[in-house]
Design goal:
Largest sheet: 6 strands, parallel
Order of helices and strands: EHEEHEHEHEEEEEEHEEHEHHHH
Structural class: alpha/beta
Shape: globular
Number of domains: 2
CATH architecture of the largest domain: 3-Layer(aba) Sandwich
Helix content: 25-40%
Number of strands: 14
CATH topology of the largest domain: Rossmann fold
CATH class of the largest domain: Alpha Beta
Radius of gyration: 20 Å
Distance between the termini: 46 Å
Strand content: 15-25%
Strand order of the largest sheet: 3-2-1-4-5-6
């Protein structure tokens, strides 16, 4: 049993992982948040602590006795990542053994400017350990969530599903010309949460690059699987050129709208083209492909197979 602090754990990914950790009944869990504790949060398994993350000394006091810090803080509005830097400094001051920064997506960040704070945090941790090991850390990277491909049918408890350029429900697809061999990693939220729970108990040293590889698949293979899963009917595929995506001159008959809590509803339509082109370019550049570091360290864990997952998710759907 160890004491774990979850920073920003009220978000979807954080809640998924908290649920798994609570279910193990092995750990003492602190939930750090800028918000007041919700009425339904009363639980003997977790302790809610309100903080604005502005004071390193205050954070260090909160983190006294904590073994592992998991951060889910998002800082899209400030790529200098001030909150996570303070969390890291406070963790060192409090004697925390392990730290996981707010990663939870891909290894590559090119074309996805909203993840600039992740790059800043990576460098901050690297510089911290430049001369000697000050803080053990890992970058938990599952690639893209496979669950997104079941929209509009929920396949997670806490993570809202959003539109993507690969629309299983309406059998339509946006593809980059000559990008059928681009590869991405797709991992279920459940697999991510289970691996994190096992990583907490892992007795060896955490790898810096913590890839969690559920399934690697090319875009061409994914389209073929999508058509098979959806009854063998062909999808309406629209092709765009990478240079047109980069220039913002691409044209398609539809554009997915990213529905995320960090994006105000009134801004989503206006940002749709930006996010769509960014995601397509990132996949085309293999930026959503991750390592299998945790697969190697946890060889007995059985990951969800993409074919089985999608066939079951879409079975009987119109």
């Amino acid at each position: 049993m160890v004491k774990i602090a979850i920073a920003g754990g009220s978000g979807g990914v954080g809640q998924e992982i908290v649920d798994i950790l609570v279910a193990t009944k092995k750990h003492e869990i602190l939930l750090l948040s800028r918000k007041d504790a919700p009425a339904e949060s009363a639980s003997q398994a977790t302790t809610w602590i309100k903080t604005d993350y502005s004071n390193v000394d205050e954070l260090a006091q909160i983190l006294q006795g904590v073994h592992t810090v998991l951060s889910f803080v998002t800082e899209q509005e400030d790529p200098t990542s001030p909150v996570q830097k303070k969390l890291i400094d406070a963790s060192v001051k409090a004697g925390v053994k392990r730290f996981a920064p707010s990663e939870w997506v891909s290894s590559g960040l090119a074309h996805m400017s909203w993840y600039g704070f992740k790059e800043t945090t990576r460098q901050y941790l690297k510089d911290l350990n430049k001369d000697k090991k000050v803080l053990e850390y890992t970058l938990f990277q599952p690639g893209y969530f496979l669950n997104y491909l079941t929209r509009p049918y929920p396949s997670t408890k806490h993570i809202p599903l959003t539109d993507l350029p690969w629309d299983f429900n309406n059998r339509r697809w946006l593809a980059v010309d000559e990008g059928q061999n681009s590869t991405l990693t797709l991992t279920t939220v459940a697999d991510l949460a289970n691996v994190v729970a096992q990583a907490i108990e892992f007795e060896g040293e955490w790898p810096v690059v913590g890839g969690i590889k559920g399934n690697d698949i090319t875009m061409g293979e994914l389209l073929a699987l999508a058509e098979n899963v959806r009854g063998g009917k062909p999808f309406a595929v629209e092709h765009v050129k990478a240079q047109d995506l980069e220039a913002g001159t691409w044209k398609t008959s539809w554009t997915p709208v990213i529905e995320h809590a960090s994006i105000p509803p009134e801004q989503r339509a206006g940002l749709a083209r930006f996010f769509t082109s960014s995601i397509l370019l990132a996949v085309n550049a293999n930026q959503l492909l991750v390592s299998d570091s945790w697969n190697q360290l946890l060889p007995d864990y059985k990951f969800t197979v993409i074919d089985e997952f999608l066939i079951e998710a879409w079975k009987g759907k119109p």
